[in-house]
Amino acid sequence: MKKTINYILAIWLLVFAQSCSLEEVNPSSVTSDKYFVTQDSYEELVNETYRYLRPLLQNTSHMWYGTDMYDRTGVVDDTQLPLNDYTTFTGDESQGWWTDNYNLVTKANTALTRGAAIKGNIDPKVYATRTGELLALRAYAYFNLVETFGGVPLITSEVTQATYNFTRSSEEDVYKQIVADLNQALAQLPADPSDYGRVAQAMAQHLLGKVLLTRSYKSYAQSADLANAVSNLQGAMNKSTLSTWDALFGDQYSAGGNKEVIFAARYSSTDANNKTGNNLYQQFKFWTDRFPGGALAAPYWRQDASYQPSSYLFNLYAATDYRASERFLQRHIVAAANATGPNGAIKAGDNVIYLPRVAMSASDISAYEAANKPTYYVVNPDQYHQFFGSNTIYPIIWKFYDPTVVVYTNSGVDPQGHRDTYIFRRAETMMLLAEAYVKQGQGGLATGLINDLRTRAKLSGNDLLTGSATLTDVLDESARELFGESNRWMDLKRTGTLLTRAAQYNAFTAHNHPATIDAKYLVRPIPVTEIVRSPTLTQNPGYPGK
């Protein structure tokens, strides 16, 4: 599937170049109408649609900023980042998220429209399956859009002419389209994917369950939404199995797939096939290269310092929770190069910074540094937003470590990560089902699902939950399990906890909102650039119109 991507890009660029030319002679005679007439070329259109998952999933700020689990980095002061802090928006902060989701919609619509036009040239079974894949991908993008912006323009076929009069459909109508697309997809998709990375029934069931669970909270909910959410989530669970953390994120990772992973954006081991590689490995590190012994080299390579885990997240883990062990959350920071530090000579690989789980006293820190040279900083949990020199220090999320990254790349350059990005995996399905059980008054069933994950994390005894789980229990377990995955902003919005949890746990949000947060922030602004292009679009209340 991946090998066709560059080729199809070349075809599109060729077609585009010809269509924009003022020359009356078409030297190649290749137009899209002439090229996309066979099953092979149709498959290329479908495969091209998948490629647009990658930039969408690398645009993480709308999934994680402004929530309880993720802080932005730095000293907490009056500087503002509206997506995280819920302060004054200028109007285009969500342009990238809007564009990336509509790019996926557009590609899916093009393949659906072109496929229908040449249906007679395609094997019926292949056509039915690919149509199901495209509908599910479009539903995924529209779910992101409707929860982020409220009602949005609902476009369900290829757009071939410049259009400047888009209007927003109601949120309820967008949900109806998403549910209809997913139900049709489910009827046409295979139970087991023949090619890991393609949409199959489990993906559609997981997504439909999530969509229906979300709609069950809305004023326009259907009476059967919650029950149908449970049924679909159970169906997705039945088509997957729990793996181990080492197989998902550790040394046992396999590029060939994992039975816990329901849907993933795949990356090739060959950079040329990726165009842009996975960037997850770089997002949760402070600037280690700015401290003695640091360098733009192994093991940290590129460090974007985009997010730091909040104190809420750090405090969630029991001492023996495997998910917060050194393999997946690093508290011992090592030197990347030989140097001279404040506590003696440093060799590459030496521990130089230590971030204890529990605060140490000044005398304990002195004793630790004397006994563990050349460690020169011991940083307590209440110091993660303080400057050491001119930079902050905090534990590094290490679950996305990618040993295939062996080069430093600057910002704006292909980060060259090769591991797949998990979009849905069984652990998330379990937490969605647990939430649905709680909503149905069956908290005992939710407890069982939570304990399955805790047992997998090597917890036992008093670290297992007893009694009937609450919504808080579910959200806390989801945080432990899914850091750096899933869309936390949408999860909290769905459960009516977004603004309260952000104000309670996000240091910058709390700083900017000592009282309450305006409910207008439950949707984000329609990009002003889109309103200028299409003046018939209306803005959400409280945001800039132009």
Structure description:
The protein has 546 residues and is mainly alpha-helical. It has helices spanning 3-20, 32-35, 39-51, 53-58, 61-64, 82-85, 95-117, 124-149, 171-188, 201-215, 225-238, 245-249, 271-274, 311-316, 362-371, 426-439, 443-456, 471-482, 488-494, 498-505, 507-512, 528-533, and strands at 70-71, 261-265, 308-309, 329-330, 332-334, 339-341, 344-346, 351-354, 377-378, 396-397, 421-425. Helix 8 packs parallel to helix 10 (201-215) and helix 11 runs antiparallel to helix 16 (426-439). The radius of gyration is 24 Å and the shape is globular.
What topology emerges from the helices and strands here?
Blueprint (H helix, E strand, L loop, with lengths): L2 H18 L11 H4 L3 H13 L1 H6 L2 H4 L5 E2 L10 H4 L9 H23 L6 H26 L21 H18 L12 H15 L9 H14 L6 H5 L11 E5 L5 H4 L33 E2 L1 H6 L12 E2 L1 E3 L4 E3 L2 E3 L4 E4 L7 H10 L5 E2 L17 E2 L23 E5 H14 L3 H14 L14 H12 L5 H7 L3 H8 L1 H6 L15 H6 L13
Parallel strand pairs: 8-9
Antiparallel strand pairs: 1-3, 2-11, 4-10, 5-8, 6-7
Helix pairs in contact: 1-3, 3-7, 3-8, 7-8, 8-9, 8-10, 9-10, 10-11, 10-16, 11-16, 16-17, 16-18, 17-18
Task: Please mark out the parts with pLDDT under 50 across 5 or more consecutive residues, or reply none.
Answer: 1-23
Specify the biggest β-sheet. Answer: 3 strands, mixed
Strand content: 5-15%
Query: So what's the overall shape?
Result: globular
Report the total helices: 22
Characterize the quaternary organization of these chains: single chain
Percent in helix: 40-55%
Rg over C-alpha atoms, rounded to the nearest angstrom: 24 Å
Annotation, overall tally of beta strands: 11
Query: Quick check: average pLDDT?
Result: 93
Class based on secondary structure composition and strand pairing: mainly alpha
Cα end-to-end separation: 42 Å
In which order are the strands of the major sheet placed? 5-8-9
Family: Belongs to the SusD family.
Keywords: Cell outer membrane, Membrane, Signal
Organism: Mucilaginibacter sabulilitoris
InterPro entries: SusD-like_N, SusD_RagB_dom, TPR-like_helical_dom_sf
